[in-house]
Design brief:
The protein is mainly beta. It is 7% helix and 37% strand. It has a 5-stranded mixed beta sheet.
Amino acid sequence: MKRTRQFPRCFLGSILLALFSYSFTALAAPEPAPGDSPMFRNDPAHSGIYNTAGAPVFSKVKWSFHTGGEVISSPAIVGGMVYVGSNDGNLYAIDQQSGAEKWKFATGARVTSSPAVADGVAYFGSYDGNFYAVDAATGKMRWKFRNAGERRYAATHLHGSAPDGEKMPDPFDYYLSSPAIWNGAIYFGSGDGNVYALDAVNGSLKWKFATGDVVHASPAIADGRLYVGSWDSYFYALDASTGKEIWRFKTGEDAEIHNQVGIQSSATVANGVVYFGCRDSKFYAVDAATGQQRWVFSNKGSWVITSPVVRDGKVYFATSDTALLHVVDAQSGALMDTIRFHWPIFGSPSIAGNMMYVAGQDGKLVAIDLDSKKPVWTFQSDASKQNLAALSKPDGSPNYEGVFRSNFYDDIVVGVDKLHAVGMMLSSPVIAGNVVYIGTADGNLYAIE
């Protein structure tokens, strides 16, 4: 069927519409020490659940640490140190109590992956095409691994932008794949289209698996299997020890404007089911053993970039431009509740105690009581306090008409950059003790208690 020229309701789709008015548990994975969060989403299965008290009441900003670039990376916390990447090209080690810099390690480009820390080593990727292992105490490099060339997802006529014959990198491909640690190996995806497994000690290649396009989702590992999605529209289950494909699952296509296609969301594995979102605007529950679809939830055109959280028979996930936090039944996918926000949500929700923490592109971190589903407190980044009102409509939604001059690709990129002035939270909240840690586009890592 020929595609009509009506833009879908993804984040950029909303921009263009405005312009034109139209548990398995992880096998052999040690439990994090109390107060530690050693990798993205806290564990290899990407639970996003933190066994700590959290901050049910907002007290103060314990400290903020300023970097020279946007902080899109989510922090790892191990042994009293906080590790986080920055768009200034550095990985930072910060004292957890004082917020003082201990060391920084320079790469050749942005560090938007979230580090993983194990056995005294911090592991992370950079847009310079290298994957690094550095000494967690000193910041000295242990080894590095070069991939075949890091890049963003790119396509012609992307999101309906002009000129329609030009191949364009996606301005919303923010993240690099964040490593998972399991059974003596480090696992991550790459813009070169491969999923890699490296020896954790020396960085030697154990195996690599080729997909059909960019892999910037972060692999989840459970029951000896690795689960990850690619921008080629497939979600894969691999044997984590050998890299052999076990099954693949097909998601949506979008051959004309490449808007409703690709898996940017990192999966969560719980109770024999893999849960993940897709830019085809669907949220999927797939049997972890067989790859058969259990159920699918339609978000009516809105991307799902976030990783979900699964607890007590419920799945929590957020959408992009519709800015909704959905609560669905983990077994059936039936909608149970919805919480509305104003700006798109890319950072993944996290749970500690009876509270969920959700970070939005309006530069606000919201703490939600899971019983009442009501916000309890809100924290705003410094840039959000200064700039949010000027970039928002009276109803609180983004003022896309005032930011984007046209649908020409260059104007889209400039407009996206303007929106970052609100101190967006693209990082996912990490909770340790009674403190919540979150990175923002104003260059800060905040510790909130």
